[in-house]
Amino acid sequence: MTDPATQAHGESRAAHVGWFWFRANFARRWANYLTIVVLVGAIGGLALGSVASARRTQSSYNTFLASTNPSDLEVTLYAPNIAGVLAHLPHVRHVGVASYSVNAFPPGKKGMPAFPKALVNGTVANVGSLNGEFFTQDRVAIVSGRMANPKKEDEFVADAYAAKAMGWHVGERIPMYFYTDAQADVANFGVVYKKPAVSLTMHLVGTVIPNNDVLLDQVDREPELIIFTPTLTKLIVNNGLHYNDYGLQLDGGMRNLSAVEREIIAKLPSGTTYSFHITSAVAAEVNRSLEPDSISLGVFGLIAGLAALIIAGGVIARGLQKEARDIEVLRALGGSPSMTSFASLLGPVSAVLLGAFLAVGVAFALSPLSPIGPVRAVYPDGGFAFDGLVLASGFAVLAVILIAVTVAIALRRSRRSAGRRRSISVPMVSRASRLAADIGLPVTAVVGLRFALERPNDRDAAPVRSALIGAVLAVMIVITTLTFGNSLGTLVSHPSLYGWNWNYVITGNGEGVPPQASKLLSTDPYVAAWSGDNFANAQFNGVTVPIILTTYNAKVTAPLLSGHEVRGPGQVVLGAETMQELHKHLGQTIIATYGTKKDYPVYVPPTKLTIVGTATLPAIGGTLSLHTSMGVGAIIPLNIEPPAFKKFIRTPYEALNGYSADFVRLKTGAPPALALASLRKIARYGQKLITATPNGGGSTDYVQGVLYPAEIENYRTIGLIPDLLAFALALSAVVALGLTLIASVHRRRRDLALLRTLGFTGRQLLSAVAWQASVAGAIGAIFGIPLGILAGRWLWTLFADNIYAVPHPTVPVLSLVIVAAAALVLANVVAAWPGRNAAKTSSAQVLRGE
Predict the structure, then answer these.
(1) pLDDT tens across 6-19, in order?
(2) Crossing angle, helix 762-803 and helix 721-746, to 10 degrees?
(3) Lower Cβ count inside 10 Å, N or C end of the chain?
């Protein structure tokens, strides 16, 4: 048994000798150590930076939203100001109020107000803060200029899109007339009330983005807001009936949402209709839309990290291989395994640790480039960021894995016998070469096949398996990326995959389509089918859900993911996310209701509905309220509304049972321009009917093309980012393949030298190397392409399910052919340089140590 003192002395001696050996050989090895540091630091830093950027991007909207002091729930009502009532409800911490009853117009001719198109058609809306809404609660983000002073009546800000639509710029002064609701509700109020309630020259001091308007679907995009100060709003808005929006901050956040909604419904004045807008629903939609960016960054980071480990591991292995003879000499002179291991490990382990520290620094330096995506413009915490979780974990992974690899290789080499003789590999007959010879391939092809497929038995064995696996993985990564990207392009270009299962919608700005106009669709020569639908909110098991009310067996409806459409009374089709929120499954029931008994006739009693299907729902519905989108919402029968309810809420022209919107699907091959012109003619006819009814002049019927949900809106606007990430992933795979092939060819130098000695010419040696590279490229294409297709389709299906789109992966056939050809070409190009050098190397120089 070894004495502890003797053992300690031995370890100290091993360390001393190892340190001496390291210093003596540092001049010869420093380039290898520096390579390890740079590779681990640069590629590892890029990997850590990408993963940290992915986390920062995915959380960017939540970070921004939290900085605005947001409301948890908004409710829009046409009623007297009930902020005091709402503030005293249980679980309500604070109520912010904004009014849409600020009727502001620039002056026109002869002292009358002008009516800009953007205000008339609802693209732009005036809103005034009453108690700090938009200023202290739900604070808007400044795009240019500054925020209006809430104590000044003549300052205002506008959404950047609203300012553009109105033709204004920051710093401009605009004369404006302001009218009360009582004045504006009178026909031709500009003539009857020639004198406005307030007349001011307003100063546009800034353009802004509301906190729920950073990335929205095209339903919520309108109206864009012109925001006035509380000082001005109080001059116009009194205690009468007004369209007010109440932002409620709740104790406990979303935990008490359903209870507060029920309390609000119970406290509303009798006969008041209502609509809710839930901040968490907007945040969930935006976060889903950010997922392609963050997932791409995360995947790129993981691929780059894997590349860093593989490439740095290869450099370490080659460095230890070069030191093998020195280690054998050290062992022959009596060096113990611990001594030789310490001598081998000191340099590469130190380089790995320095490289891991450098990787952390590189990742930190890259942090100002994130987040990417639509939130970046308003992100409150820009600049450098230290993601402790990612950087600490990444440092540990890089250091532990590479040190473990280094130790394993060093121990294996240090235990070899100092007197062990190296075997020399010669090109002998094998199964692969015999088959190649039997089919008549030239000798260079036989040799190339052997180089590519067979592993020699000598110490310097070429990395055959790693070269083939690397080729397969490289092609697989490229094909997976292309398949995923192609499927994303298919999703964006096919609206039916995200709920828009028709060509056009005829609708009005908050009113509807007269039935006489809808009936014309049945005889239109370009229309294949149409369906009339209404939009609303309802409570399902106490949870507020946006709904589409439709007819039984509607000819045009949202695409189903499971089950069947609404075919009769008591049935409901749910969005996939709503299904999860309600914790329900197909075949189970829910209870739907609207209002309370005291609100009759604005009351839908508790009604049992059976879940018969799930669907990808379109982004469509009323503005300033919850509306369906992707996996959110439900489709229920129109007849759930009692007749008294319908009669109460209908305007004069809707009392004839018109619909809020008509979904129209065109015939296959219908001329797009002629079909659209025909639908617009029907919409104009509907508008003519509306204008002829009392108070109907403020509504407009129009033909609406596809409305993009927030997820698709982001994919359409993120530009080259997905392409750049895809290119970076492919480049990482190609670099890894290239380095592996170079190492494989380089480590065949002894075999090439023997072949040269046996009479091979330089041209034949190059041909053998080309065959070796071609076989690796061909195997990569043969196995990598189908594996990449499977992986890409699987990843896309997971992603589509996550955003509640119809899963429809597509494969880019032309790209597959190009990748297969490129794999062969690239393999030959990469192998040509080391092959040429090997062919020129003197046989005596290579074999002199044998």
Answers:
(1) 555 445 555 555 56
(2) 150
(3) N
